[in-house]
Amino acid sequence: MSTLNLSGTLHFFKLIFNPSLCLPHATISTFNQLPIPLSNAIFAQGSKDGAVARRADIRAVVLDKDNCFARAGENSVFDDYKSHFSLLLQTYPPAQSKLLIVSNSAGTSSGDPSSREANQLELNTGVPVLLHGTKKPGCGTEIMEFFRKHPESGVTHASQVAVVGDRLFTDVMLANTMGAYGVWVEDGVRREQGVVSEEF
Q1: Rounded CA gap, 123 and 151, in Å?
Q2: What's the pTM value of the predicted model, to 2 decimals?
Q3: What is the sign, positive or negative, of the torsion defined by CA atoms of 182, 183, 184, 189?
Q4: Residue range 60-78: average pLDDT?
Q5: 66 in helix, strand or coil?
Q6: For residue 177, is it left (φ>0), alpha (ψ between -120 and 50) or beta?
């Protein structure tokens, strides 16, 4: 069931003053194009023209679910992406809290109050799902609290996190407002499969 995203509405007004909040640091077509490790494709913020660019120190990855690695409304990895998802698991082991799913459907107090969807998603993927009260793009504090509670992730600052998702105004804006790196999955789940990313 779809619920009002008050966080998204409030953050929309920030775009009036700072439109760059919805600009990604990297863009890929589908999940299968996600560079692993992500540090290979993202350069550190603040790199200046003419200076030697240094790669970002990405220690953990936050994944959106719907139209990113799964069909909208489904709680399992899309078949075409299973191999690449396995590589992501090996590179950013969930057991070390280096991979986290943050969805505006599974795991939200408004859309999934019993955590049934989150529990099923976690069971199917082997990746922890953040239980959060504020929807994206406003849950950056809750994400960083997760990493603070799991020092084994190695994350000490938001700049060590990459957020991967199909929506500019939720996933990418979340990354930018919390000081992380945003990777935009432009086409979402493959077009020929009949599911395409929708911005609103």
Answers
A1: 23
A2: 0.86
A3: negative
A4: 95
A5: strand
A6: alpha
